[in-house]
Design goal:
Layout: H1 5-9, H2 14-17, H3 21-39, H4 43-55, H5 59-80, H6 87-102, H7 106-113, H8 119-133, H9 145-157
Helix pairs in contact: 3-8, 4-8, 5-6
Length: about 160
C-alpha cells in the first residue's frame, strides 16, 4: 500500500482534517514504515507491537487529560492563592470545548508535531499488522455470507 493511500483510509478524522498536510504526510510515512518493518518479523514480534498499540493513548485522550489537569490545578490555585487562577481552567475548558465541537484546538497542532496519533491512525496500523500476521486469512470469499459474518464477528471480538 502506498503512503498516499493511508490518507483515504482515515477519512472523516477531524483532527487530520485540521492538521497541516505535511504533518499528516509525516505520520503516514511513519505508519507505512512501521508496517514495512514488521512485515519481516515473526508473529510474536507483530503481536508485541499490536499490544503496544492497544495501550497507546490517542490525541483525544491526551487533550482530555491535559484539560482536566490544567482545570484541577487552576481550581486548587484559585482556592489557595487568588481568583486570578480561574483563567487556567477557563482556557483549558474552552480548548476542550473547541476540540469537542471542531476536532481541533491550539494544543492539537503542537501535539501532532510531536507525532501523537489519532485513534484512526493507531487502528490503521494495528489492523495492517493483524493482516500481516494472517488474522483475517480464514475469512474466505468462497464462504456464504452467514459463515463469513460469523468469522468476522469472531475475529472482531479478539481485537
Amino acid at each position: 500500500m502506498e503512503v498516499s493511500d493511508y490518507s483515504e483510509l482515515v477519512r472523516g478524522d477531524r483532527v487530520r482534517a485540521n492538521t497541516p498536510p505535511e504533518i499528516n504526510q509525516a505520520i503516514n510515512i511513519e505508519i507505512a514504515a512501521m508496517v514495512r518493518f514488521y512485515a519481516g518479523k515473526t508473529d510474536y514480534e507483530i503481536g508485541k507491537r499490536i499490544e503496544k498499540l492497544n495501550k497507546e493513548w490517542d490525541i483525544g485522550r491526551i487533550i482530555e487529560i491535559r484539560a482536566s489537569t490544567a482545570s484541577l490545578i487552576g481550581i486548587i490555585l484559585c482556592l489557595k492563592r487568588s481568583k486570578v487562577w480561574l483563567i487556567l481552567p477557563t482556557i483549558a475548558l474552552t480548548f476542550l470545548l473547541q476540540y469537542a465541537v471542531q476536532g481541533w484546538c491550539p494544543p492539537v497542532s503542537i501535539l501532532r508535531r510531536f507525532g501523537f496519533h489519532t485513534r484512526q491512525e493507531i487502528d490503521l496500523e494495528k489492523y495492517s499488522l493483524k493482516a500481516l500476521r494472517g488474522d483475517f486469512d480464514e475469512i474466505s470469499y468462497q464462504d456464504n455470507n452467514t459463515s463469513r459474518a460469523k468469522k468476522v464477528i469472531t475475529e472482531s471480538r479478539s481485537i
